[in-house]
Design a protein that fits this description.
The protein has 8 helices and 7 strands. With 198 residues, it is an alpha/beta fold. The N and C termini lie far apart (47 Å).
Length: 198
């Protein structure tokens, strides 16, 4: 995973409420266990017609959207079934942060475990972002804030351990490996002693 302390990008706006994980990645694409290459399946039923051609007016298909790393989504983004493929697909497509007024709990946790930053903001800030597609926004993971082009800074919540992992560019396994020497020392200090096992 890449280290992210601060991210600045223009936004892509998907102003649809209650986008579930089956819309993010349709079930027929869940056969893969690879993260790389799954971005092509992102919003497949909305991005492409039945012949596989891009639907021009879908926000992620806009030429202006290419290279943008922040998705502003409608309320209750990522609801529905749990599937890590949803944050995998967003990340592989190039999205590094999703901003909404409400993000489903399981999707939020899966995102944090896979290097995608879920940013929950107040309703007024969310409304401004929806109404101003393409606004350049800075997501500051270290300080748990976003900064709008107006200069307004808004705080967002993030679990401290997940924040640490995103800043360090590691997942939970990476965190354990970083602390392997300490784990071994702890285990050795608690080694089983037959004479004490009475």
């Amino acid at each position: 995973m890449e280290k992210i302390t601060q991210l600045t990008s223009k936004t892509i706006v998907l102003a649809i409420d209650d986008v579930d994980t089956d819309q993010i990645v349709p079930a027929r694409f869940l056969t893969t266990t690879e993260r790389e290459g799954i971005g092509v399946s992102l919003f497949a039923d909305w991005r492409f017609d039945k012949d596989g051609n891009e639907i021009a007016d879908f926000p992620l298909n806009s030429p202006d959207a290419q290279g943008r790393q922040i998705l502003v989504a409608g309320r209750n983004f990522g609801c529905g079934s749990s599937r890590e493929h949803a944050p995998w697909a967003l990340h592989d497509f190039g999205i590094r942060a999703v901003i909404s007024s409400e993000i489903a709990d399981i999707f939020r946790n899966n995102s944090l475990n896979n290097g995608l930053i879920p940013v929950v903001v107040d309703a007024a800030t969310h409304r401004w972002l929806l109404d101003n597609p393409g606004a350049e926004v800075t997501v500051d993971v270290e300080n748990c804030t976003i900064t709008l082009p107006t200069g307004q800074t808004v705080s967002f919540p993030i679990e401290p351990f997940a924040r640490h992992c995103i800043i360090e560019g590691i997942d939970q396994m990476g965190f354990l490996l970083q602390n392997l020497d300490n784990i071994k020392a702890f285990e050795n200090s608690r080694a089983w002693n037959p004479s004490l096992n009475i």
